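Hi, here's the filled form for the chain we discussed.

Project: internal
Contact: R.S.
Residues: 394
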Amino acid sequence: MSAEFKKFLAEEKRLLQEKGCYRQMKTMDGASQAKISLNGKEVINFASNNYLGLANSNLLKQAVIKSLNEFGAGAGASRLLSGNLALHEQLEKILAQFKKTPAALLFNCGYMANCGLLSALSFRHDIIFSDQYNHASIIDGIILSRAKLIRYPHKDMAELRKLLIQNQQHRAKRFIVTDSVFSMDGDIAPLRDIVDLATEFEATVIVDEAHATGIYGKNGHGITELLDLEGEVDIQMGTLGKALGGFGAFVAADSLVIDYLINKARPFIFTTALPPPAIAAALKALDIVQNRPDLRDTLLQQANWFREELKNIGFNTLNSETHIIPILVGENEKAVQFSQKLVDAGIYAPAIRPPTVPQGTARLRISLMATHKMPDLEKALQILVKIGKKIRLI
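And the returned structure, exactly as it came back:
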């Protein structure tokens, strides 16, 4: 490593520390649960996307062990070589049924799915209208596509309409892309309005259901089901590693789209297929989601209660309406201080800072799990009040 490169890295680290944006990993000892051991200290865990608590489910563990014994630890190759197992095709069939689409395609993670999907479907002369608060994987997928990126203000349908009108004469493909549940604000996209605008202006709708799959709608299909839009959203992406407790992702869409992605999506073509145990875990998780509605009912009921309590206390939870609840702090250093004091008191709620969120909006991100117990939530509120007052946030 050259001296010049070392100097560059040291300076970048210094700048991150100066801005309060330097990140360090914390060590978790054990499974992802409602309570964890963090750097050797037991804490209530508000930092997991394991929303239904399935990551440590005995049913998933048993399915994984059975699959491991039958199919081995890995797929051994990409799907287009010798890595396409009957297990993969079984899961894709069930995912298509789950999402009420003609077909589905597995990807190795949500980031790869969004990058592969967007870079394969759109090109330099196309236009992609993207919500300002969309996930980084969506933005990176658009950049890889080299399509024209037009960001519209968060959930602002009047402005999106103006932008669509301004680009109405554009002859290439037009896409509208949005998260359904926004991962740092915890609010829900106005999907009905987006679908109506897409119909009017002949655009294709792509929805990232990563934080909604398994949780929302009568059957846990996501926000598309909750808003009665199944069959009207063109392309959906979902993950297997959040509410479903495992690992991987998928795209659900028309068979023409899926066939195209098999041949054009580079993150699908050029990577080893998901390992059989991950597939087995997803199959069991989908079965649980469809047969245990009480898990998502518990999660959403507790989230609604916890959010209202935080608001009544005086915390700013922005426009959260889901199981993801931000507590706005503002300054980076203050958010880090708040988070560390909470860890010391037995609660882990991570500080989220730029570039993950806009400048001046550093926050704590609280994500609830169906397996949180009410006494722990009540205890957490007491601690949040005490420390919130101590640092003069409330």
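Let me know if anything looks off before we file it.
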